[in-house]
Request: fold
Amino acid sequence: MASNQTLDDDEVEQLKQSLPKAIYRNSELLTKYQNFWIAHNNNQLHNILNLQRHFLARDTDIFITSIPKTGSTWLRSLLFSTINRTKHPCIDKNHPLVHRHPNELVYNLEAIYGNAFDYPRSTDLNEMSSPRLFFTHLPYESLPESIKHSKCRILNITRNPLDTIVSLWYFVINMMKIKQGESYKPPCFEDFFKDFYDGRFVYGPFFEHVIGYWKQSLENPNKVLFLTYEDMKDDTISQLGKLAKFIGVPFSSEEENEGVVEQIIELCSLNSLKEMKVNKSGVINKVFEKKSYFRKGEVGDWINHFNPKMVEKMKDLIELKLKGTTLSFRLLLE
Reply:
């Protein structure tokens, strides 16, 4: 359960100094907390501890969980549009997605307890109407206990690790250019690959994160829905139907006949979101360019970045990490 105890800055700093450290991207210091990596030189640990201690989940809450750059921005737009399809029909030219980035409609849990841009303060959470929509990159083990023990719903999305690396690489480069300016020298792709391969990146390791949610989807299928980016791209209509049913708002036969599902998919498509004026400029949380969330969205773009040696190393790692599970990754769409 959440606690009202206030976090002491010195206590947090002592904890941070006691935790394992690693260098990421040849320069950035990471801290390992509860078996995953977070940025050391900001307030990320403080925000996560506040979240774990104070957040109270409602049974009606819906959470999107994921490793960064695995399709969660797309899923946020689909979730928001599906939940609000009566209040905000997708054919409405004033739909909220036309005026606000998906990250401003589905709130980042960690950012709420930090210095977030355009997010409600933690004290305002009780004023939000249900269902509240959130997303987080935390692994299952590190979610607040109130989320684990409530009847809320969790939508987890994952993506094949090769495309994830590529998408994350471009995103990090854009972010660091904003933070450091033109003097920033981006890491070479080979070095970035090595960090990811070793599990050394913010919210990594990748496979442990993915398997954690996958296991929960098997143990509690009414609470956790496990989705893959590749399946979503391959058959968006049926996957969106599954999502709507899971969160308790299935599409009616009338809606299906009227093309409501296709309208949501079109509004939330990468091309549609990319062309919206609101997503062409500006930043989220002061360092994330809005347009950087919408690059290619292709399955198999990794083939343009990986050399044969890296492909073999990653395939071997996938086989090793997924041994003993029925999980698999589709690296290409046929």
Summary: The CA atoms of residues 78 and 268 lie 6 Å apart. The longest strand covers residues 28-33.
